[in-house]
Write the structure tokens for this entry.
Amino acid sequence: MSATRQRAEGFIAVPGGRVCWESVGAGPALLLLHGGPGAPSDYLTPLQALADDGYRVVRYDQLGSRRSDQPDDTSLWQVPRFVAEVEAVRQALGLGRIHLLGQSWGAFLALEYALHHGDALRSLTLASGAASTAECLAGMHRWREALPDDMQAALANCEAAGDYEHPAYLAAMDELYRRHLCRVWPFPDVLADSMANMAMPVYTTMWGPAEFTCTGNLLTWDRSGRLDEIAVPTLITVGRYDEVDPACAATLHRGIRGSRLELFEESSHSAHLEEPERYLAVLRDFLDGVEAADGGRWPA
């Protein structure tokens, strides 16, 4: 990290409470949206390296997550409120037209934001995302079917009993995580730390009791019929072994006109941690290309 890199942090009022943010660098803004839902943004900090390339990289913990307020009101954990939260952050920090990157659930949110606030975007990066939860779950099911028979049985039996803490269930989930969440073992510290600080009320309300089991309010989320409305330069990234199957990235790529798809052959759901040098190079090339085509119109 550059010793001269500009840095600032603080809190912003958003619908339902305050969120904690951090900004590094100066220049066109790259706003990062973390996954989960409910994972803190720490695991995205390696992307702050782009501050050394002339970008202002901003991350924040979404409401309910780690350093942000954690209100005891599950009615807040709805997609429209999170979209309003992103817009509140953009306006409060005076970011103007932004490059927006969402990873995992953050990619769902970034897609939703683009459909509501496309004029606020310079570009869109969808990392390990999908256009619908149904397609996402179908891919997850295929990965489950590749497990040994005893692990498949443990998952099915424990889910039927609602026993998500059974040792056999946890062992099967650990194997899925090692195959499809992050193939670097042990997990990088930033990822392990984020996983250890997951905001479970947000996660269980929106997703469910476990990563490969969705019972929350995202179950019926589907924007696959609206992808042709996205009219900003879009980068789609996915790992070969991603828990959000590469078929989901292909759907995004087909639906978003002129989008760019990058497959990371040695990665799963955390390509920016599994192949960090290549990931940064791809993202830097994409952002620089958008800036050049945009005529250097920063600030906007």
User: Anything to note?
Assistant: DSSP finds ten helices and eight strands in the chain. Residues 16 and 281 are 37 Å apart (CA to CA).
